Automatic annotation (TrEMBL):
It holds the Pfam family Acyl_transf_3. One of its GO terms (molecular function) is acyltransferase activity. It comes from Allocoprobacillus halotolerans. Keywords: Acyltransferase, Membrane, Transferase, Transmembrane, Transmembrane helix. This is Acyltransferase family protein. The chain crosses the membrane at residues 7-25, 45-64, 76-96, 116-135, 142-163, 183-201, 213-234, 240-258, 270-289, 301-323. InterPro entries: Acyl_transf_3_dom. Residues 8-320 form the Acyltransferase domain. The lineage of its organism: Bacteria, Bacillati, Bacillota, Erysipelotrichia, Erysipelotrichales.
Length: 333
């Protein structure tokens, strides 16, 4: 087995589970505070982690070749296309194609917001990668300056929106911006920061591991306090972005790559399929609950969460099995 980063592989699966939690709020009826920590703090590391994984491996041996870039982007486009087709029936059910200004909405969703609520990730990582690839061709300080500015603009349109609306000029700017996007959590403002971090962390560092542990813990506490204050003291348009989130993610990812061993490619496949299919499983679990009158499937968030996790991983395992069986037959032929 080729040597790799097993911690990254395992965290892919854990991150996928946290994504499910964000969409269900599993502990809401048990402990709102625990649910807040799970979905509004820890869970917000998941998407940046996936961004950093892609960027880390893309830039692992320096600036990637055109062939490697093309392969990565085409793979993302392929899975985005598959995911769009999978969710067309639900889009029809939700009357997506009957909304006014349909062509404009489709363009906006395809390139920025995603055609279903979790599919924003694919256009975000594609757009973000293009931005980072272009920036890394130039001066390092200029590239970082642009990325930081984009992230700050995203912060003010995301978690800190409740503060900037009291400034007329900024409110006007963001009102105009939100004509073309639902949130600033996208490939223009959100993804570049973490894709840049992923590319940088592939370089060698002489900083002691304990420094990253200490910095990561302090940053996580600060992010928790930041999130708590924002949710209690102001209105939030979305809470995917925090000031301390990049530091937390950087330290966590650095610690992940300190442990090398056998790769676990199954984790990569499972996390991808779970991410794509879990909203469909949410619908399936709720439908089963309504048709069988087992309303605990609908009303109990924790039970629903467990069922969706099990169902999503079940579907993911089935897809992996069928694809491997198909490929196995193909090789024998």
């Amino acid at each position: 087995m080729k040597k790799g980063y097993p911690v990254i592989d395992f965290l892919r699966v854990i991150a996928a589970i946290f994504v499910i939690a964000i969409h269900i709020y599993p502990f809401a009826s048990i402990s709102p505070f625990l649910d807040f920590i799970c979905t509004r703090v820890v869970g917000r590391i998941a998407a940046p982690f996936f961004f950093m994984v892609i960027s880390f491996f893309l830039f692992q041996y320096g600036y990637p070749t055109y062939k490697h870039i093309k392969k990565t982007i085409l793979s993302l486009l392929k899975w985005y296309g598959y995911a769009i087709m999978i969710y067309i029936p639900l889009m029809l059910y939700n009357h997506y194609f009957t909304q006014p200004h349909l062509y404009l909405e489709v363009i906006k969703d395809l390139f920025i917001d995603g055609t279903f609520y979790h599919l924003w990730y694919f256009p975000a990582v594609i757009v973000g990668l293009i931005i980072v690839l272009l920036l890394k061709k130039g001066l390092v300080l200029l590239a970082w300056g642009i990325v930081v500015i984009l992230y700050i603009v995203g912060l003010m349109g995301d978690s800190y929106y409740g503060m900037i609306v009291h400034i007329p000029a900024l409110q006007t700017f963001y009102d105009y911006l939100f004509v073309y996007m639902d949130y600033t959590r996208n490939g223009l403002f959100f993804a570049p920061m973490f894709l840049m971090l992923g590319s940088v962390i592939s370089e060698e560092y002489s900083i002691h591991q304990k420094t990253f542990i200490f910095t990561g813990c302090i940053s996580f506490v600060c992010m928790f306090i930041e999130s708590l204050l924002l949710h209690t003291m102001t209105s939030i348009r979305h809470d995917a972005m925090y000031v301390f989130l990049p530091v937390v993610c950087f330290c966590l990812f650095y610690l992940c790559i300190q442990y090398q061993g056998n790769r676990h490619p199954l984790c990569q496949k499972l996390s991808l399929y779970v991410y794509i299919f879990h909203p469909l499983m949410i619908v399936v679990v709720r439908m089963i609950g309504k048709f069988t009158h087992l309303m605990v499937f609908v009303d109990n968030n924790f039970i629903q969460f467990l069922l969706v996790v099990c169902g999503s991983f079940g579907v993911a395992y089935m897809i992996v099995y069928l694809l491997e069986r198909k490929n196995g037959y193909g090789r024998k032929v």
